Amino acid sequence: KSDCRRPICLLLAAAVAHAGVTAMAGATRGAEIAGGGPAGRAGATATSIFKRSHIPIWCDGPTDFQSYNVDVLMQDMNLVVEAEVPPWREFVAARHAAGRLVCAEMRPLTHMGNMLEWAMNDAGMQEAVCRDLDLQPIPILWMKEHPYQGRIPPFYCSNHPRYREFLRQQIRMFVQTGADAVMVDDGGGSPFGLRHGGCFCRYCVEGFRVYLRNKYPAARLREQGVEEPETFDYRRFALRRAGDLASYKKLLSPGKLPFSADFQRFLRESDVALFRELQALASQLSGRHIPMGWDNVDCGGQYAPYYPFWDAFFSEITSGSAGSAPSTA
User: Fold this and answer.
1) How far apart are CA 172 and CA 143, in angstroms?
2) Within the chain, what is the greatest distance between any pair of CA atoms?
3) CA 256 to chain centre
4) Which of 16, 159, 245, 319 could be a cystine partner for 203, CB 3.0 to 4.6 Å?
């Protein structure tokens, strides 16, 4: 997002029907907005605030917008504490007076600047991470270019109480600014960590135990090697079957390890429930429906469980030189 000050050299006005949501794209490095209206969104009572004619921009700093005549700002506020809210409340009010919409950018994983420094130094946040089969934190590989004191930021666990409260507090501060919507940039901590051999933190292991007991009768569990459903530890189960982390990763495909598909489903459903709760919290605190959209880079099937309550797609488009095709979309 640091290159959002590039001149706009690509503008797409193609509507794309996807899972009941209408997508539109506009660019500098790129932002795509989908104004889908209320259809398919649980609990939504208001029509979409987004229009097909809207042109969006993705902004890092508070002055980035000044070079562009656009309708919607996806604004990184980088809020860490409530004392930082008042200047952004003034910012949003000024943009509203100019007829613009402001979407507060939520960064569940990809922290930058003050947020990165705070998260990497906060003991609670560093406990609230996805853990692999060896109980080690899982680094976010696309953050290798943004290390903090030599450390690559980790995936955070969607089931950890500390992390969940961090996201709730982000929502509370966004609402205080008066933002019109929330744009989630790189959400889905535990499901993303899964492909790297996580999440085997205590909260996910405990939660999965309950998930299995609620889904299968004890006799079915025993058939798959679960002798004590009340104390079942999926990490130990997987470690016995796989032997080590590298071998476990090879067993992630459905059918290769008992309950692996259930484990993936549990982590995804937990994350979906979390973000649905966050949108509901924003709407409750605001007294109106607060749209939520995601930085859904590839519109891939892994995001399909989130579609029912999304209002918008904010997909990145990196544009090349004038007249050339975009390098990524």
Assistant:
1) 26
2) 65
3) 28
4) 159
Which tokens in the block code for residue 53?
Answer: 């004619």
Name the nearest CA neighbour of 92 among 114, 79, 110, 77.
77
**For 234, phi and psi rounded to 5 degrees?**
-65, -30
Helix (H, G, I), strand (E, B) or coil at 74: strand
* pLDDT at site 304: 76
Tokens 């997909």 sit at which residue? 315
181: β partners? 103
Q: Structure pTM? A: 0.82
User: Given this model, what pLDDT does residue 111 score?
Assistant: 87
Please, are residues 4 and 290 in contact by the beta-carbon 8 Å criterion? no
Strands (E), the chain: 16-18, 21-26, 31-33, 56-59, 72-75, 101-106, 181-184, 292-294, 312-313
The predicted-structure confidence for 289-320, as pLDDT tens digits, reads as follows 999 988 765 566 677 788 888 888 777 665 55
Tell me which residue of 133, 266, 136 sits closest to 190, measured CA to CA.
266
Dihedral angle sign, alpha carbons of residues 129, 170, 49, 32: negative
